[in-house]
Every structure is written in structure tokens, then in C-alpha cells.
Amino acid sequence: MKTIFSGIQPSGTPTIGNYIGAMKQFIDLQESYTSYFCIVDEHAITVQQEPLKLRQQTKSLAALYLAIGLNPKKATIFIQSEVSAHAEAAWIVQCNTSLGELERMTQFKDKSAKDNRVRVSAGLLTYPPLMVADIILYQSDLVPVGDDQKQHLELTRDFVSRFNNKYGNGNQLLTTPEVNIPESGGRIMSLQDPLKKMSKSDENKKSFISMLDEPTVIRKKIKSALTDSSGVIEYDPENKPGISNLLTIYASFTDFSIPELVDRYQNSGYGQFKEDLGEAVVSVLEPIQIRHNELIDSEELDSILDEGAIKARMVADKTLLKMRNAIGLGRKR
Ligand code: AQP
């Protein structure tokens, strides 16, 4: 069976962007892959986090993984910082990655541009090698992510090829992963600025729908989403980015395709469309929220995470040892 790995940062509550772009794909994929789903808390600390809030968000994200339908009998669900091989392998990756490669990463350029240079952590620059480590430790064949992670996946593939060539003596020490981006919904846009990606850490809370937003808040945020003045429902991301984004969200939360939705709302205005979209989103998120709330402080959640960490460590440590041996660290084991 082939292997998948993916992770979400507990840098806030996941948005419907994280759900559509990544989490929703996990549910079907766990049926046909050996699956590792991680809460990447070490990635989250590349920007400042409050310790108590970070810990709470980490547990909440784990509860959300289960609430959307991930099955711990099929998938390994664990917290990144509880498997120390990630940080150790990331160091090896950093030492085999050039500064130039990291400085070219658009996510680094975007996130570092938002802050004063003295406050930008070195970890923000070396975030991609940690992500490379996450992926290679499980010898992952496929990585389901949103569109914004494409460049980091390219970096991973380049690293694997370089590492295998340099240290493999003809063997494929590490597996080259493929990226899996959904055909539609790989980049959900902000509700307030549809030219910008929806992000869980956006300061403007009206720009995203969090997976734990109350139904009234969800309906309100959709109602106030920025569209245009034409009132015509068409899918045209270039000229009508706001309504096109809402169409993508609608199609992702229902069984309707975008053309079916365009047809269905041909004679309606944005008001009716937004009202129905609000109901569609609420009807998916409400049961997830109920299950999340049952799990968040449960022993069940802790024991799933304990077991996940044990299973993940066994696989990750094996790959790490292979890497250490290949590059000559320590004594050969
Ligand atoms: N807007 C989006 N549309 C589709 N997919 C998205 N993803 C993120 N935003 C969108 C995908 O969600 C997964 C988890 O992302 P992450 O938490 O690792 O970090 P991120 O990509 O930086 O996501 P955010 O929401 O923008 O977080 P912050 O605000 O903390 O930086 C990834 O697969 C990502 O592609």
C-alpha cells in the first residue's frame, strides 16, 4: 500500500480553506493509503504563539481531525513535536539545502514581508526543510495539500533526488513524493479580499470562516462576503473573483458542480445564493462541531494521540537512522 502524509498547523482554528484544500481529501484517501495525519505544532512556532493557546489549538485540531471522519484504526494521527525525529531530520535537510533555495520560497517572502526583519524568526526561513523532513520520514508517496504548498513539495522532490544521488550508492534511500492538489478548491480566497488567500491567522476575522464558527456567525460572514455589483452569478475568477470563490465553496460543501450551481441560480440575485450557501456550510460544519466538542477534553482523544505518536515514532526513527547512517553521523547502527 502506498503512503500519504499531510499536516495542518495549529496556528489558529482551521478555516474552510484548510478543510476544502486539504482536510476533506484526507477522508477518502485514508481508505486506500497507509496514512499519517499530523498536527504540525513545530511549524506553528515559526511565528509567535501564546503557549496555552497553542496547546489548546493543538488539541482542538486533533479533535477536528477525528470529527471530520478520520479513523484512527486506519490512519495514524499524531502531534509533530511528540515525534522528535522530525526536528532531527529537519537539521539534516537544512544542511543539505541552500540558502538561495529557501529565500526563493514565496510563503517565506509573504510572511516575512508582514513583519519587521528583526522579529522574523530564522525558523520562518527554515520551515520548508522541516516540512521536507515531515514528508520523507514516512517515505510518503503522496502529499495532499492546497495550492500554496506546491513550491514546498517541489523543494522536497529536489531534496530527495539530491540526497539519493549523493548518499544512496545507487539505492533510493528516500521516496520521491507526488503532490495531490484538489482540482477545485486548492486555493480558497478571503471573503473580504478575493484576490488574497483565505488564512486562519488573518487579523480580519470576517475574511475567513473558521470550522468552529457558530452557525449565526457563518451565515453573517457569508452575507457580508465581498462580491460585485452585477448581481449575475457566473464563474469567472479573473473578472468576478468574489462570486467565483463563493461558487467554489458552495460546490465543495455540496454534491453540486459549479456549472450546476450557475444554472440553478441563473435567475436569483446574490442574496438568495448567499443564504443557501450559508445553510450548506452550516449543515456540514454543525455535526463536525458537535463531535469536536465531545472529543476535545476526552481521554479517547489523548489515547488516540498517544498511540499515534508511538506508531509514528517507529516509522520515523527507522528512516532517520537510515539518513544518519548514510551521511556518516555518529557510529553506524
Ligand atoms: N485558502 C486555502 N485554500 C485551500 N487550501 C488551503 N490551505 C491553506 N490555506 C488554504 C491548505 O491547508 C493545509 C494546511 O495549511 P497550514 O496550516 O499548514 O498552513 P498554511 O498553508 O499557511 O494555511 P493558513 O490557513 O494560511 O495558515 P496560517 O495563517 O497560519 O499561515 C495545507 O495543505 C494548505 O495548502
Automatic annotation (TrEMBL):
Q: What is this protein called?
A: Tryptophan--tRNA ligase
Binding locations of ATP:
Q9, P10, S11, G17, N18, G146, D147, D148, I188, K197, M198, S199, K200, S201
Q: Sorted alphabetically, which HAMAP family does this protein's record hold?
A: Trp_tRNA_synth_B
- The species this protein belongs to is Carnobacterium viridans
Q: Which gene encodes it?
A: trpS
Which keywords describe this protein according to UniProt?
Aminoacyl-tRNA synthetase, ATP-binding, Cytoplasm, Ligase, Nucleotide-binding, Protein biosynthesis
SUPFAM superfamilies given in the database record: Nucleotidylyl transferase (SSF52374)
Q: Where in the cell is it found?
A: Cytoplasm
Q: Which Pfam families match?
A: tRNA-synt_1b
| Reaction equations catalysed | tRNA(Trp) + L-tryptophan + ATP = L-tryptophyl-tRNA(Trp) + AMP + diphosphate + H(+)
The job of this chain, per UniProt, is described as: Catalyzes the attachment of tryptophan to tRNA(Trp).
* Classification of source organism: Bacteria, Bacillati, Bacillota, Bacilli, Lactobacillales
Q: Give the protein family.
A: Belongs to the class-I aminoacyl-tRNA synthetase family.
Family annotation (InterPro entries): aa-tRNA-synth_I_CS, aa-tRNA-synth_Ic, Rossmann-like_a/b/a_fold, Trp-tRNA-ligase, Trp-tRNA-ligase_bac-type, Trp-tRNA_synthetase
Give the residue ranges of motif 'HIGH' region.
Answer: 10-18
EC number, as in UniProt: 6.1.1.2
Residues bound to L-tryptophan: D134
Give the signal peptide as a residue range, or say none if absent.
none
Q: Which domain of life is it from?
A: Bacteria
One term of GO molecular function: ATP binding
